[in-house]
Each structure stands twice: as structure tokens, then as C-alpha cells.
Amino acid sequence: MSVFSDSLLGGNLAAITILETDNFNDDKLLKKVATTIGLSEVSFINFDNSSCSIRWFSPKVEVDLCGHGTIGACSILFQRYGLFKDNFYLIKSKQYDLFGKACSHNRVQIKIPIIKIENNFEANLDEIIEASLIESSSFTDVDCIVRVKNLEVLKSVSINFNKLLLLNKRGLIVTCLSEDRKDLLYRYFCPRLGFNEDPGTGSALSSLYLFWEHEIDFNKRVNFYQESSRRSKGLVFKDKIGQNLIIDTEVSAYFTRRLEID
Q1: Is 0.85 surpassed by the pTM of this model?
Q2: Which of 238, 221, 250, 244 is nearest to 112 (CA)?
Q3: pLDDT one-digit tens code per residue, 207-245
Q4: Which of 4, 21, 55, 82 is the most buried (most CB within 10 A)?
């Protein structure tokens, strides 16, 4: 299925694998499955009537937080098992408590944590992206963020991926606002995960909230567009209860595939 789009041709493709507990805890198996499937991340779910746990693996490493994979998991559990209907349900990962709700067969909301700004981190970003393009920058516990002037710069930006690999962060978010300053635009670069650019990164919004909160009113629904080749999109807004963001987005129809692992 695809997340952040109602078409398999847009957004970010999500692979969801439902496992029994023993297999869910088998790191070697999960890495092998993720490598075989070859998408940006693969979601692995273990659930019963009272709880749901989730893990995510890229082709290279286990990932701490994956927005599109969580959205895809909620949609599959709703469509196949009738779970996550109407109300938010807890989804536990190793580091975070997430919440998901299926609004319909092709629309899902998830609650994700807000990631803190890291004030003491230093890096020479002009080795990664041309210095003249950087309007401002910041670091969170997870990502590096660079603001550029406009959409034209965002679409044409060139990244030194060899230098980015040396940065002790999950990835680099390059971001700007739309011309009318109402929409949030960004791209996400992450060679550490095994691929240079992610087509749809919901978890990047966890980092972008504190970066943009003084210029965007997240108490209202804000359109976001990830300007990758597959152009992911959705809505994001601040949860009225607790320190979470809510992502509201479309998902495509799904198909199933049998995977045999030696």
C-alpha cells in the first residue's frame, strides 16, 4: 500500500508484516525480511485483543520512529481485523507510545511525539549543503534541519551524501514554507538508513514542529507536502491533549504478497 497518497504511484510505499511474538523478537529475521522487500522501511506488528507492538527496519538498520509505517499498520489492522476504528488506540514501539485511528478505509490519523531541539550539537553543514542556501538551521535529538528560501531552492538542492553520512543524526530535513506561508514543505535525506532520500517521512514532522512553531499555527490543520519524486502530502496539527502531533492523511488500496525467507 502507499501512505500519504490515495494512489500507489504517489506517497511512500509501506510494507506491513504481521508476526507471532517469537518471530517479532527475532532481529535477524526482521532484518532479512526488510532487506528482501527493499523499501525505505518495513513495519512489523505483533498484536492481540489488548495490545499492539510495532518495530520498523530499513534495509540497513532498525529505525526508532517511522510515521508512514505506523499509518500503514493502522490501516491494515482496520481493514483486515476491524481494529483502530473511530478511537485512538495505543501502539507501542521500543522508545515511544504512539496512537492510531482509522477514520475510513482510506484515511488514518496517528499521534506522534514532538522531538526536542538539541542546543549543544554542532556540525559544519556547509560541507553537506551549499552555505549560501542555508537561511537557518537547527538540530533535534534525531535530525538536522536546514531552512531554505523557497520551493524552487528546495526542489533543486544538492546534498553531499558522503559528508551527511558522517553527521551523527538519523537524517537531514531541508524545509521552507509555501509562498503564502500557510503550507509546510520539506524533503528528507537519510543515507544512514540505506537510501539517499525518503519519499514520505511522517516522523520528520516530529522534528519540524518546534522549528516552525513560531511561524505556523499548529493549533489549526496545516497542509504539509514532502517534495520528493512521489510527493507525499497530508495534514498535521497539535494535539490538544499532551505533547503530540496528529498526522491526518490518505492511504491507497493494499495488496498482499507471500514472502518466503530461507
Answers
A1: yes
A2: 244
A3: 999 999 999 999 999 999 999 999 999 999 999 988 899
A4: 4
